[in-house]
Amino acid sequence: MASSRVLLALxxxxxxxxxxxxxxxxxxLSTSYYNKRCASLQPAVRSAMARAVAxxxxxxxxxxxxxxxxxxxxxxxxxVLLDDDTTTNLIGEKSAFPNxxxxxxxxxxxxxxxxxxxxxxxxxSCADVLALAARDAVSLLGGPSWNVRLGRLDARIASRDxxxxxxxxxxxxxxxxxxxxxxKGLSARDMTALSxxxxxxxxxxxxxxxxxxxxxxxSGGEVINAxxxxxLRGACGGGDGAVAPLDVATPDAFDNGYFRALMERRGxxxxxxxxxxGGSQDALVRKYARDGAAFAGDFAKAxxxxxxxxxxxxxxxxxxxxxxxxx
Length: 327
What we know:
Helix content is 46%, strand content 3%. With 327 residues, it is mainly alpha-helical.
């Protein structure tokens, strides 16, 4: 009887090992996943990301945003990087409404992936490259660093409809933001910390014109600093494509300036100011505004949790050699 149980246990262990080794089968994420597979991976990503940021500091915010928009749509599977392909009827996420006129940084990821392929051919997924690049983007701008769990695979498919349905928009209310993050298994604290990514980067006038045109009050009824509203109206004089910094004080430094701006009623987007508008997150915004270390620590933890979002069971997966198309 005992020997039968031993044989059964060994058989199950062998089956588990066999399934985990099949191409396209997700594995548990681990900080040591590439230690033997590609020991030079993280230095290669860091070096390529550093070159991109040195050439254009705004690339860091762009890459960070790519990671968010990837993970929030069917998990962290690099589907956001796929180009449309009429020959295979692939309609990707790049043309979704939240992405079409705002996402960029694809060329930076292409360059990083190329460097990684040179070091370790057909080994590292684009999803893992993007996760590492996002971490390095933050730290290169003076923000926190964290140990990235690795072992993701790349989707062979993408969904424009899912991108349109899952990504919170600039006009989102606090309740809709909380709901969107909760549906991903992320807490209210995670949501507020991750929103702090808006301490870097810029947004198009099309996303904040309602705030700019509201005088002392934005279109959603939230209070906006009158001087700031006038500045935004000036920025929008250049049309919908004109941009303004999400954190007017330090737009290319990853710090807690975003939260200080919210307390001053200088949130660029309606969804930003909703975090400090007499609601449930006001106290946390105040804490982050006065304690940058607390924000940095919570942001790093929330990035790890968001990075754990996995594609749905049955999603066709692989390690893409080129991030813009399936193999």
